[in-house]
Amino acid sequence: MAPSTGRDLSDPTFRASVIELCGALAYGELVGFFTIVHDAQTAPRLAYRVALAKVASNEFTQYERLVGRIEELGGDPEEAMAPFTASFDEWVRRTPPSSWLEGLMKVYAGNTLASDFYREISAYVDPQTRDLVKEVLQDSGQAEFAAQELRQAIADDPAIAGRLALFGRRLIGEALSQAQRVAADRDAITMLLVDDGSGHGADLAEMTQIFARITQGHTDRMEALGLSA
Amino acid sequence: MAPSTGRDLSDPTFRASVIELCGALAYGELVGFFTIVHDAQTAPRLAYRVALAKVASNEFTQYERLVGRIEELGGDPEEAMAPFTASFDEWVRRTPPSSWLEGLMKVYAGNTLASDFYREISAYVDPQTRDLVKEVLQDSGQAEFAAQELRQAIADDPAIAGRLALFGRRLIGEALSQAQRVAADRDAITMLLVDDGSGHGADLAEMTQIFARITQGHTDRMEALGLSA
């Protein structure tokens, strides 16, 4: 990776890219908030509903911090999110959980995919945005709750593993498909990642590697749950 | 009203009553959180979804503060909420909004009914819980967003007023019906409000007056929106 420490926010193209990236992250948090709350309604126990409400509430706090950063950078949050609403909404629509455990899997996979993406992307933004992205990343450790419940449920009834593994594959497949759609459509974000000749940013091969690392991370996590990925 | 400043938390009966009251308030906040998020999904614009997510997120913060107070008082939050889950859930179930505006009305009426109830009840608890209840009360001013949207919608299309007024009457009617059910079932909370012979607490006539004042407050607010209540 070639961190973009040399680029600065006085460059309007770079600034626009960072704003757009924050827009993508912010809308992701907002979708996470609504999805988690929605899935929490099927929780078998009040304690689980509360735990998920807590995770969701953190997502909203992160959303607000990202929106704050967009505004600091002179962007309009709604405009910055607009290019990504269709892709995120489509991911949610195409991966309906059919059970409480699949809902938990979606929380877990959604959070960890987002974390991995944040980790990769933080190399390419300005230092202040990078610090924010790292902080947002830390908070999402809340999804460990979902991982614990999933591990326990699979240990208690190994027969559910096959169906959950299938759902896990759908989650990553649809996520990659939407990510590639965004990469193809959105110049500003792609510019951030793709070498602009200045030696900063990642080139296209690097971008493919990012997707590969994210997929590998997902695979490792599924296996850690005892699922074949 | 006869504020209960003379009663203190070393009295186990009084302490149990305060814990139970905090349990009722906490579960109310949790239900508010889930209901608002659910209704936000029908919002016609992203900005509205965000505004409602913000209101919901505040409800969750208030929930956490009330749970913290229950724990400080030596209570178990889940146990403290348990007696009230059926009534709150039933209120939600019996008042399904059939439109985005009815959803907003439910946010507005739910928040303001809760605020009025908090204001009344704060006279009967220990000073520290009273301070917390007052703080929780302040935050719920967020529901002003719903009131503004409703006023605007009614001004734009007076024909919707009749149906919204009907829905408003159902909201208060079902709320009073659930409140009376709770009052009949729960000795601990009733003890807090009803004169125990010590001169503290409200008597049964006072309790009826509390319900009457809450109903009047709702009526006034409906009229302020331009609705016949």
UniProtKB/TrEMBL annotation, chains A, B:
<feature type="domain" description="Ferritin-like">
    <location>
        <begin position="14"/>
        <end position="195"/>
    </location>
</feature>
<dbReference type="InterPro" id="IPR012347">
    <property type="entry name" value="Ferritin-like"/>
</dbReference>
<dbReference type="InterPro" id="IPR059125">
    <property type="entry name" value="Ferritin_actino"/>
</dbReference>
<protein>
    <submittedName>
        <fullName>Hydroxylase</fullName>
    </submittedName>
</protein>
<dbReference type="InterPro" id="IPR009078">
    <property type="entry name" value="Ferritin-like_SF"/>
</dbReference>
<dbReference type="Pfam" id="PF13794">
    <property type="entry name" value="MiaE_2"/>
</dbReference>
